[in-house]
Write a structure and sequence with these properties.
By secondary structure, this protein is α/β, with parallel strands linked by helices. Helix content is about 35%, strand content about 15%. The protein folds into 2 domains: about 240 residues, Type I PLP-dependent aspartate aminotransferase-like (Major domain) (Aspartate Aminotransferase, domain 2, 3-Layer(aba) Sandwich), CATH 3.40.640; about 130 residues, Aspartate Aminotransferase, domain 1, CATH 3.90.1150. It has a 7-stranded mixed beta sheet with strand order 1-7-6-5-4-2-3, with helices on both faces. A 5-stranded mixed beta sheet has the order 8-9-12-11-10. Helix 6 links the parallel strand 4 and strand 5. It is globular, with a radius of gyration of 21 Å.
């Protein structure tokens, strides 16, 4: 079994729950403050010309941001991390390493914003993309070209919750000049650590489970590769997509409860998934923690639990989906995911509207849940009530705003 990550400078092996509370965080040396201070400073006094204490300008580095870097790197079992103003900013900086003519393999079920960046923007700059079913390792192997420089995986994917065998894909990249990046947002390091499975880079929208309270937007990149890290840091410093110190503080505070939040949301999600699976109005439930999921065995090997996201399709189709999404009380109709509160959405016209006219288009009747940490019985009753209302009032629901 792989050695668990440790605190910097500490040889003791620590469990994930302990790392979530302590990694990257030291008492402030002057006052002894237990919580990491929020350093609201854009610049730093220098001892001599070009001689400083590690910080010169906050676009380059900030002490609160450094603590966040160290925390997430430890949780992912990596050496280096960089925090960004958003998950898309993190993704953009990683892709900026490529040159015109370079080829990227990407899954054919990814977050709509990722597809939009790849297909609508980066293609303009000469980057070549292939969107394929990465759950089939053989298809990934067939898609590799002499110009392939990056394989981009979401696992589980958004919103169809497909899983890709990270270790198997990593084997395809060895000694070929191809980097493997894994968007670990849906699982979080509490459930899955891609670097240990052979990935080169892990990407997060820290807006989601890492922050965990729907009060901050951010992104994170983690790697063990010093050259990769230094290149991305150079690009970040040049382009400037950095988070503010308060954003870093809020994310750090959220990380302290990551382990217990993920345990609670996974318990709730499994219960809700089983409830939906047995509901007479539900045509299909998609959740990696259910034995009927096509990648359930891979989920058991690769993840510690099924996660907090559930997708499902109602027999009543599009109108039923929209009626349920607007009929819940505890599940808030909103985009995003990973907070302590439960959310519900219809991806086709919300988070994935940007793929509507592509091969990645989402079933318009698909409903996605982000299950929070509320009482599971209350959440189940909320869905039961909304589905009963949708069945009894089948009149068309007004189109959701895009």
């Amino acid at each position: 079994m792989a050695k668990r990550p440790t605190l910097p400078g500490d040889d003791a092996e620590l469990e994930f729950e302990t790392l979530a509370v302590h990694a990257g965080v030291e008492p402030e040396p002057i006052t002894g403050a237990v919580m990491t201070p929020v350093f609201f400073s854009s610049t730093y006094a220098q001892e001599d010309v070009a001689v400083h204490k590690g910080y010169e300008y906050s676009r380059t580095d900030n002490p609160t941001r450094t603590a966040l870097h160290d925390s997430v790197a430890a949780l992912e079992g990596g050496r280096f991390a960089l925090a960004f103003a958003s998950g898309m900013a993190a993704t953009d900086v990683l892709l900026r390493r490529l040159s015109p003519g370079d080829h990227v393999i990407c899954g054919n079920d990814v977050y709509g914003g990722t597809f939009r960046l790849f297909d609508k923007i980066l293609r303009r700059h000469g980057i070549d993309f292939s969107f394929i079913d990465t759950t089939r390792t053989a298809e990934v192997a067939e898609a590799i070209k002499p110009t392939t420089r990056l394989i981009w995986l979401e696992t589980p994917t958004n919103p169809l919750l497909k899983l890709t065998d990270i270790a198997a894909v990593a084997d395809l990249t060895k000694d070929r000049g191809i980097h493997l990046a894994v968007d670990n947002t849906f699982a979080s390091p509490a459930l899955q650590q891609p670097l240990k499975l052979g990935a080169d880079i892990v990407v997060h929208s820290s807006t989601k489970y890492l922050g965990g309270h729907s009060d901050v937007v951010g992104g994170i990149v983690v790697t063990d590769d010093q050259e990769l890290y230094e290149d991305m840091k150079f690009i970040q410093n040049s382009a400037g997509a950095v988070p503010g110190p308060m954003d870093c503080f809020l994310t750090l505070r959220g990380i302290k409860t990551l382990a217990i939040r993920m345990a609670a949301t996974c318990r709730n999600a499994e219960r809700i998934a089983r409830f939906l699976e047995e509901h007479v109005e539900v045509a299909e439930v998609i959740y990696p923690g259910l034995p009927g999921h096509p990648h359930h065995e891979l989920a058991r090997r690769q993840m510690k639990a099924g996660g907090g996201i559930i997708s499902f399709i109602l027999k009543g189709g599009v109108e039923a989906a929209r009626a349920v999404a607007t009929g819940t009380r505890l599940f808030t109709l909103a985009e995003s995911l990973g907070g302590v509160e439960s959310l519900i959405e219809v991806p086709a016209v919300m988070t994935h509207a940007s793929v509507a006219d592509s091969s990645l288009a989402v079933d318009p009747g698909l409903v996605r849940l982000s299950v929070g940490i509320e009482n599971a019985e209350d959440l189940e009753a909320d869905l039961q009530r909304a589905m009963a209302m949708a069945k009894s009032a089948p009149a068309p629901v007004a189109a959701l705003a895009q």
